[in-house]
Amino acid sequence: MLKIVFLFLMAGGLPVAIAMAGSSLIYLLWAQTTPPFVVIHRMVSGIDSFPLLAVPFFILAGNLMNNAGITNRIYNFALALVGWLKGGLGHVNVLGSVIFAGMSGTAIADAAGLGTIEIKAMKDHGYATEFAVGVTAASATLGPIIPPSLPFVIYGMMANVSVGALFLAGILPGALMAVLMMLTVAYFAHKNGWGADVKFEWPRVVKALAETAVVIAWPLALWVLITKLGLPPQATVAAGLVVLFGLDKVFSFQAVLPIMTPVLLIGGMTTGLFTPTEGAIAACVWAMVLGFAWYRTLSWKMFVKVCLDTVETTATVLFIVAAASIFGWMLTATGVTAAISSWVLAFTKEPWVFLLLANLLMLFVGCFLEPTAAITILVPILVPICQQLGIDLVHFGLVMVLNLMIGLLHPPMGMVLFVLARVAKLSVERTTMAILPWLVPLLGSLAIITYFPKLVLWLPRMFS
Questions:
Q1: Residue among 329, 346, 374, 354 nearest 43 (CA)
Q2: CA distance 131 to 188
Q3: Quick one: pLDDT band at residue 396, thresholds 50, 70, 90?
């Protein structure tokens, strides 16, 4: 009864959150075994969670970065570093998304923010619109894989998994995806005889490499000082930030300070300075320091608009989580999750077979549901099976999020697809065809991440 009502409401065009809460209420009224007010109680308790406090702050941090002129700095840095390669702006597109992923945490923000600049630049340099859209769509999937990540926060809360471990687990898979995408760009550049888009100039490249060296050396130096020499973390980080701002002032770096967002998050969590939730607040403070005080690109009027946008997005996300809480509870109470687990385990007890079937299911679901809704529905069903088969839940979280990100590129509900179609002024059909070749590196990455869990779990285990 519960599943039938849910599918009926979904087929009627209702938003998924209303369909989940509505089907649960209708089932309770029909069964008459539990008071209807339990729906409200379970929805409220579903969002009464400390880890979920990170959601509005990560959304706010991403919105602040988007509105502080950071995208142009990231684009110029990526252009200096890899724009001189064959198919240069394609490589710039991927590298820019890698950097931007460390600030936005969502694929849609990446596509709408950085994608607008990248597609226009590629079209101006003579690239086909379809190629520009395809590489932008593929690279946008890096947003939730490289920390910080809003889907990881939701998954961690639903599956009772460490958000910090999920953040660490996304670093190497994100790097792998970026490499495969850049290899795909190189293939198209060789096939079509494309050259570089900017002239190779030693001063420009050396400055970009110097910025890269600072990004790598600064956190390593702090880590050595704190963990090996035993210096106090707070004072050491404060002194390190003074040095960092001084270097930025002297050398006028393009993107060192914005790139430090994920570095500060991961570093702070691994050294015990703050929890992931406190890290989200720290990311907001960092974004405000850059926007208001350092770059002076944020105004109070813009800040109010950003806050209102954040409230709207947060309300949508948390309503989905609240509705999924009662729906997941009903699935468990009515025995649906146990029945699905028994059916799957009767069909196979091999983890690799289950992962194959789960990938197919999640790719299908991702084409129809927004990632937050899909995570909240799938976690109560699939996580118990993972536990029985001995599949690591951090590893499975990466697999689930990547599947759902790929689903964002497909009709009928792929939000990245529609965003890029509007940005590039292409039809949905042409945008879909432009994205198809880029499924090769994405599905290749998915296969490697699924069946080589050590790639995902190496960093979390090293810092555990």
A1: 329
A2: 9
A3: very high
Residue 261 to residue 259: CA distance in whole angstroms: 5
What angle in degrees, to the nearest 10, is found between the helix axes of 54-66 and 256-270? 160
Tokens found for residue 210: 């110097």
Tell me: the pLDDT tens digits for 78-121? 888 888 888 888 888 888 888 877 665 566 666 666 667 778 78
Give backbone dihedrals phi and psi of 393, rounded to 5 degrees, phi first. -75, -25
Q: How far, in Å, CA of 442 to CA of 406, rounded?
A: 7
Kindly state the tokens that stand for 464.
């555990």
DSSP H/E element including 180: helix 171-192
d(CA 140, CA 96): 10
Could you tell me which of 170, 184, 196 has the C-alpha nearest to residue 139? 184
The span from the CA of 345 to the CA of 173, in Å, is 29
The amino acid at 193: G
In whole angstroms, what separates CA 114 from the centre of its chain?
A: 14
CA-to-CA separations, 158 to 155, 364, 373, 393, 409, in angstroms, rounded: 5, 21, 12, 11, 25
List the Cα angle 69/72/77 in 5-degree steps: 130
In order of 118, 206, 226, 452, 453, the CA distances from 376 in angstroms are 33, 46, 38, 25, 23
In the numeric block, the tokens 């880029």 are attached to: 438
Instruction: Tell me which residue of 208, 200, 201 sits closest to 81, measured CA to CA.
Output: 208
Cβ–Cβ < 8 Å for 157, 51: yes
92/74 Cα distance (integer angstroms): 9
